[in-house]
Amino acid sequence: MEKKKVIFIGCGYVSVWAYKELYGRLRKKINNKEIEVTVISISNCHDFHGFTGEFINGFLPINFKSTPQEQIFKGANYIQAKLKSIQASENAVEYINDNGDVAKLHYDQLVLGTGSLDNFDSIEGANAYGLSVKKSNGIKELRERLVRNLTEAENSNDPNEIESLLSFTVIGAGFAGVEVSGNLVESLNILKSDFPILEKYSFKVNLVYSSDEILPQLQKKRVLRNYSIKTIEKLGIHLYPNQKVQKIVDGKVFMEDGSSLNTNFVVCTMGQTNDVYSKESSMKINDSKRLIVDAFLKNPEHGNIWSGGDAAIVKRPYFSGTCNYDALWAIKHGTRIGKNLTRVLKNKKPGKFKYPGLGQTASFYKNKAILEIYGLPFTGILAWYIRIGFFLYFMPSRRLAFNAFKSILFDSKIRKSSWHSLIQQNQEELIIDRDFNKVEAL
């Protein structure tokens, strides 16, 4: 029997859950290398995005966000490299390793599970000054930047500088935007005991968005929408509707109408894009650079290329429109792809993607969340606990999920210790910088 070669591109949800399904069904053949699986990814781990708010405010340690690839892709070859091109006509991919060398691999089946990138190119200066919660170390950078701003504000005598340092701006009012802004408020309230400047001066969290209202996804979900608006108002978040950001510079955010915000802390959550298919013209992609796939989650032009999640356009079964771009849809797409790969490798016909959808959720801070399951709305503490259980269930590693559950039971101690270690680290770096500046002055 000729060896079959399967290549996975990326460590996103689609790749993780497709491989879990494939390995669970064809474990023996994969371990015996009768089916050779290769994973090519620029990252050496899978990043779990479900607990964005909990990672920001320290409710969960940041180390629970990432799962090493060896825990997920058991039995597979792993190449940490950047994809250069997909040569679908040759059933091959090219990649670039850390040394800049280009190599080529051929495949029988190809899975594109790259997820997506923040669309930072849509705003001038976003790449230089914008923070991201989507990229691998984005939340870690956000927390470090938050503490650095507070430390600098504590040591400043300039009111204008303090205003800028204590102004925190989030661009985009979708689920990610409201979750980030709400948990920034909670984080700042937690840090008041460590930074007296927060009692002397009022901090300001700004939410800037181009639509009329927050959470445009909930236009027809009145219960969830009203609860969200009331919660945002209660948190004291400053809303800037119908405002399109033109550019971000150091210490300023400029709008297209000429107005500006004095802030040097900007989190961008205003959309996603994809560049995986830019070098392959024979595959159909849409305007947002997402692959068009059929009901089996394969590309119509190349029946051995599979994709889903953020990287593809997938028709939603039983409804008009397409699947949302969130983790649950990517997980379900991956599971179907894994089943279809198993069937194809056994010379059977693939099955259609039939998952109708479950719901959506966002957490503003601890005990405050919105949740929809099969059209039923939940709010407050009940929604928050259901959401926690839901995300624990879908974490890619059972060991990681169990440790995260233990951490949740002792959240107050963990939150304090996680912030204190950051504060101590930042103060040590500040002392080193001061000593260095003194030496430079001499």
UniProtKB/TrEMBL annotation:
Pfam families per record: Pyr_redox_2
InterPro entries: FAD/NAD-bd_sf (IPR036188), FAD/NAD-binding_dom (IPR023753), NDH-2 (IPR045024)
Alphabetically ordered keywords of this record: FAD, Flavoprotein, Membrane, NAD, Oxidoreductase, Transmembrane, Transmembrane helix
Example GO molecular function: NADH dehydrogenase (quinone) (non-electrogenic) activity
Domain FAD/NAD(P)-binding: 5-312
Transmembrane stretches, start-end: 373-394
Key word Membrane present: yes
Reactions it catalyzes: a quinone + NADH + H(+) = a quinol + NAD(+)
E.C. designation(s): 1.6.5.9
Family recorded in the similarity comment: Belongs to the NADH dehydrogenase family.
Name the UniProt record assigns to this protein: NADH:ubiquinone reductase (non-electrogenic)
